[in-house]
């Protein structure tokens, strides 16, 4: 039964993402808002809903390992697998505004998370057997940064409305009602499909005797990141690169600031040293992606393949440790 639910979840994700991309792209044109802004906000929030649901529920139940490992694993998956797969579909071009603002901000908040997760103590990390805590004040700080990000993004959207080119305005778009219906139905399919994939994949993993941390970093992270993967690949296939890249960067920002912020405010999250190591890996992955994107303002197919190999190495590391 779990395998049937897994297949159904995949089908819902794929069709939901297709509808969601079409509706979101149309809304961007109707409102004369750059597609990158829609990707960073509406699409990013929609595809981050599975992570929010899983991590918040885990925090309420006191399953802290799952709450944190889900976010860290999802963000690493987004950077290496989602962008890697999109680059294999076609080279992913990154706008200068994204390279100048959102991507550096994503790296900045990941560094903040590394400091918070390590309790600002290198000596404590070296001891390895210490317990670290992502407390309520840390959660409040993350949520405050989230508000700043939303404010800056909305402000940027309002300033950019008059800068849409004639070519973008000629883009074939649906009416407002049809666009809204596509977004709602697509989002419902994404969330429901992601939920089915997570539940069935976790049940299968438990049957095979895999650890909770491994499940959070790999199986659940992969399942909750499937909306980002499918949505971004569909967007890339349709030539909506801004939507694809904006979705990944926006989702990573949402995951750290909103999801970990909410989860740690609900209840302080206790971590072991492996969570600090995983955060360090996320920092490294973020910097590598940024360097690849800024080198020629695009991520090529070769770099996409290297991203996938890097994720495979990370997966093996998590499996063996």
TrEMBL record:
Annotated Sodium/calcium exchanger membrane region domain residues: 3-153, 181-319
Short name of any one Pfam family annotated for the protein: Na_Ca_ex
Segments traversing the membrane: 71-91, 103-122, 134-154, 175-194, 214-236, 248-269, 275-292, 304-320
Any one GO MF annotation of this record: calcium, potassium:sodium antiporter activity
GO-annotated cellular components: plasma membrane
One BP term from GO: intracellular calcium ion homeostasis
Localization per record: Membrane
Top-level taxon of the source organism: Bacteria
Recorded topology in the membrane: Multi-pass membrane protein
Record key words, sorted: Membrane, Transmembrane, Transmembrane helix
Protein's UniProt name: Calcium/sodium antiporter
Organism: Extibacter muris
Lineage: Bacteria, Bacillati, Bacillota, Clostridia, Lachnospirales
């Amino acid at each position: 039964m779990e395998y049937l639910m897994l297949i159904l979840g995949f089908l819902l994700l794929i069709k939901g993402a297709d509808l969601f991309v079409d509706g979101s792209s149309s809304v961007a044109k109707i409102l004369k808002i750059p597609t990158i802004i829609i990707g960073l906000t509406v699409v990013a929030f929609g595809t981050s809903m599975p992570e929010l649901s899983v991590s918040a529920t885990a925090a309420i139940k006191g399953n802290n390992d799952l709450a944190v490992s889900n976010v860290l694993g999802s963000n690493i998956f987004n950077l290496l697998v989602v962008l890697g797969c999109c680059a294999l579909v076609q080279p992913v071009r990154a706008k200068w505004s994204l390279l100048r603002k959102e991507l550096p901000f994503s790296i900045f908040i990941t560094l903040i998370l590394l400091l918070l997760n390590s309790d600002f103590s290198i000596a404590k990390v070296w001891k390895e057997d210490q317990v670290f805590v992502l407390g309520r004040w840390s959660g409040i700080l993350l949520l405050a940064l989230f508000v700043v990000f939303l404010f800056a993004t909305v402000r940027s959207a309002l300033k950019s409305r008059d800068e849409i080119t004639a070519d973008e305005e000629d883009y074939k778009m649906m009416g407002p009602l049809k666009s809204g219906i596509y977004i709602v139905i697509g989002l419902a399919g994404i969330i429901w499909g992601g939920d089915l994939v997570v539940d069935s994949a976790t049940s299968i993993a438990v049957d095979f005797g895999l650890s909770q941390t491994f499940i959070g970093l790999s199986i659940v992270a992969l399942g909750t990141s499937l909306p980002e993967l499918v949505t971004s690949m569909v967007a890339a296939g349709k030539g909506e690169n801004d939507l694809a890249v904006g979705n990944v960067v926006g989702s990573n920002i949402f995951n750290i600031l909103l999801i970990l912020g909410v989860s740690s405010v609900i209840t302080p999250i206790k971590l072991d040293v492996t969570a600090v190591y995983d955060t360090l890996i996320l920092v490294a992955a973020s910097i590598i992606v940024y360097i690849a994107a800024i080198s020629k303002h695009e991520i090529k197919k070769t770099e996409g393949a290297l991203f996938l190999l890097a994720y495979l190495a990370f997966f093996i590391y998590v499996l063996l440790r």
